[in-house]
Amino acid sequence: MSSKSKVLFERAKKILPGGVNSPVRAYAPYPFFVESAQGSKMTDADGKAYVDYCMAYGALLLGHANAEILDAVKNQLSKGTLYGAPTEREVEFAELIKKSSPCMEMMRLVNSGTEATMHAIRTARGYTGRKKIIKFEGCFHGSHDSVLVKAGSGATTFAAPNSLGIPEETTQNTIVLPYNDVEALEATFKREGSEIAAVIVEPVLANVGLILPKKDYLNYLRKITSEYGAVLIFDEIITGFRLALGGAQEYFNVKPDMATLGKVLGGGFPLAAFGGKKEIMMNISPVGKVYQAGTFSGNPVSATAGFTILSILNQRKNQIYPKLEKNAAELSKALTDLSAAHNLHTQVYSIASLYQIFFTNKPITDYGCAKHSDLQMFTAYFQELLKQGVFIPPSQFETCFVSTAHSDEDLEFTINAFDKALAAASKEHKPR
Ligand SMILES: Cc1ncc(COP(=O)(O)O)c(C=O)c1O
Q1: pTM above 0.70?
Q2: Which residues of 1-12 are buried (b: 16+ CB within 10 A; e: fewer)?
Q3: CA–centroid distance, residue 207 to ligand 1 (Å)
């Protein structure tokens, strides 16, 4: 463990709550502090390198410090970083998003996924004139008030799925249902369908580990929301440009009314987008009465990085996506095989470039199942991986991400580390 990181963490804790600027970055005994990153690897303050499968929580599809993105951004930097006035780049970028992502007839660029989902929900409420929204247990849609109810990611890791500081009145219009449960959805729509403005969903639930939608679940969401005139919002902050160029919409061939995009979209810079059907988006100010604004929205630096990564993905999608999927499948197969070799009951899931392991003998189909997996075994697995030089998100309630920068050597190195990490996990196993 890195001693410089320990010193930095002690210093950080005095000035930043928990020593971090986002809770998911904190873990015991202290997180490593990053000195630099390149390709598939990050190097900490003491010079130790880690093969990285956190990839900034899924933001870096092409790995760290991609040369093409850096060149484009350097070129933009010399022309200014922020104008507070429109640019051609924003327009061509939005056109490229529309070309890649089937439902985005019109959109707004913002700076974070949190902003994107907040504004998408407001827009859906403004458009329908209804107040209620449905979200699903364990889905994480950022850290704004109306969706921090039974939220996944850090909210679950740190046992605060319902945050303090949010008045009950704010969340009384948020209906929370189990993911993958068609009956619960049908009953809710039958009861109060005419009051429901929107259903917001992570099409693949990637914020409590990785949970895949049951067959036809997304089609069912499409059908019932159309029937009752509610807006279907796919939160594609993780799945967008990751499951396929056109995200979950393309992968599952289901077209929502609205989508939120972020992470990969910014090419490593702060950028997100929300958008959808023109008739919905035309309700936004200054053409409509739903208000949304942002000083840094569509800034030329982030827009350049985003435009560059989308150009790369459009040009090379036929090589990039099959390779990513193959690599994630290889890692998850290794986890499955090695679990058997260590006599461990685990569930391993992967889709496109996402994968995750759960320490349990029961299939994971929703938040409740995910919470009952063995967290102590996961922690032992995580800590041993770290020791071996492999970094994954430090919580069971996150997902691992493969990038195009991961090489065959990285995979081999990682599989060796998996072997040792599963051995460490098996020592924690207590029959329940
Ligand atoms: C599905 C999903 N939606 C929204 C967000 C919020 O995005 P941001 O952290 O950029 O605010 C996240 C972040 O992890 C996410 O995974």
Answers
A1: yes
A2: ebeebbebbeeb
A3: 9
